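Structure (tokenized):
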């Protein structure tokens, strides 16, 4: 016990040092972008409700133990976005070689369907070279191609964790779930035979079930590996899901939609700044601990657009920047210091999750969901910044069992030291 207290004190000291670094680094700065992202995110959530394929439910459930353990009930609204409707409403339509913005903006733009193979940059403009030989001129190049890393450049080894998931929206004979609840994380493994090879695989790298029922016979089900390096094979995920559904007595009659997700998480940010501006996955905007990205990317889009308009050199006297200087200003708006430091903490969380087996993961989330809602809500939604995240980490550590504390110390000390070193380096940038 004395040794445990000494190591706990050491870990606490690490967190205090990180807090001091964060306070020193941010004391002279306000967080206008962060506040704006939160406001826009709230507005977007209301808009997205109109495109959801389900009604919002009032409760979410997380099951971290076996069948005999009580569910963890949380008050939060959840909904599943209708991807087809979302794309139809949010993307401009193309006709006659023009992009029409459906009344949102009073102009059209040239539309060219081809694959960009490279970008050639001049002092104040760029050329996008397409695979059909066409060269498209541009003042600003915005790369939203996900994780292809074709145009946005990295200068550090790219070795992310991977979230892998397989999901179906299905008609079923029936299911055991309440239709007014969403099952957020079900880490139980009672569906896997004792002593089986698949149970051992799940012990080493666990997966959880996500379930959102819409009616007694219509439900969305998804089996997810939160993060692993390398990522699990899709066949492995599907095998685990099939075993779980058999155990639950769920017989699928028809699959309306299915989805296969492989999401890189964490890893280095791209070179900051650089000529091509990224957004979304190519800009490192995936939450390294959860895999969430869409809401933050949508909330950031108008901020990036405003920055481009504000700094764009139109050829007259109204422009402020052009070329490299313009891109640098836009990157600064996209990744201000507070967001970079926030991401470092999320990567620290990912590094711990990568090392936890099933029992360790259960203990971790048992403590996580017992925190004050403002902490775990803020962590999942990227609304906590480094000073608040340090308090979140201290609360999580204090709330964890002794076994979980030992795991966090044994498996998190090196990632914590790495995070602090990166924070110091970022402060001196």
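Design, position by position:
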């Amino acid at each position: 016990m004395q040794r445990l207290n000494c190591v706990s004190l050491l870990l606490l000291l690490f967190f205090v040092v990180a807090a001091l670094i964060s306070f020193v680094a941010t004391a002279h700065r306000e967080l206008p972008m962060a506040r704006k992202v939160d406001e826009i995110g709230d507005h977007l959530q209301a808009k997205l409700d109109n495109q959801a394929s389900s009604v919002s439910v009032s409760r979410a459930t997380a099951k971290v133990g076996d069948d005999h353990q009580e569910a963890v009930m949380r008050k939060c609204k959840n909904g599943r976005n209708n991807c087809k409707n979302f794309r139809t409403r949010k993307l401009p339509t193309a006709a006659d070689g023009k992009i029409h913005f459906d009344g949102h903006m009073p102009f059209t733009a040239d539309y060219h369907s081809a694959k960009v193979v490279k970008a050639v940059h001049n002092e104040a403009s760029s050329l996008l070279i397409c695979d059909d030989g066409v060269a498209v001129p541009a003042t600003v190049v915005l790369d939203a191609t996900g994780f292809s890393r074709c145009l946005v450049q990295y200068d550090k080894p790219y070795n992310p964790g991977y979230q892998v998931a397989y999901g179906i929206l299905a008609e079923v004979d029936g299911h055991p779930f309440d239709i007014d609840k969403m099952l957020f994380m079900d880490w139980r493994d009672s569906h896997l035979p004792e002593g089986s090879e698949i149970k051992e695989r799940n012990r080493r790298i666990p997966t959880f079930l996500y379930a959102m029922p819409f009616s007694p016979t219509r439900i969305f089900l998804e089996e997810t590996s939160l993060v692993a390096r390398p990522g699990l094979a899709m066949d492995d995920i599907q095998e685990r899901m099939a075993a779980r559904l058999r155990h639950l007595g769920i017989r699928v009659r028809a699959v309306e939609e299915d989805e296969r997700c492989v999401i890189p998480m964490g890893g280095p940010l791209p070179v900051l700044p650089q000529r091509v501006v990224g957004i979304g996955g190519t800009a490192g905007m995936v939450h390294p601990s959860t895999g969430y990205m869409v809401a933050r990317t949508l909330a950031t889009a108008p901020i990036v657009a405003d920055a481009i308009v504000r700094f764009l050199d139109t050829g007259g006297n109204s422009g402020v920047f052009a070329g490299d200087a313009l891109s640098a200003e836009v990157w600064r708006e996209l990744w201000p210091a507070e967001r970079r430091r926030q991401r470092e903490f999320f990567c620290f969380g990912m590094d711990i999750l990568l090392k936890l087996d099933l029992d360790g993961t259960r203990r971790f989330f048992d403590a996580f969901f017992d925190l004050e809602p403002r902490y775990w809500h803020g962590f999942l939604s990227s609304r906590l910044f480094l000073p608040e995240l340090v308090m979140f980490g201290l609360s999580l550590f204090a709330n964890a069992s002794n076994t979980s504390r030992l795991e966090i110390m044994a498996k998190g000390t090196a990632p914590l030291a790495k995070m602090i070193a990166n924070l110091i380096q970022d402060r001196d940038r």
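Reviewer-requested clarification: The two ends are 41 Å apart (CA to CA). The first helix runs from residue 2 to 26.
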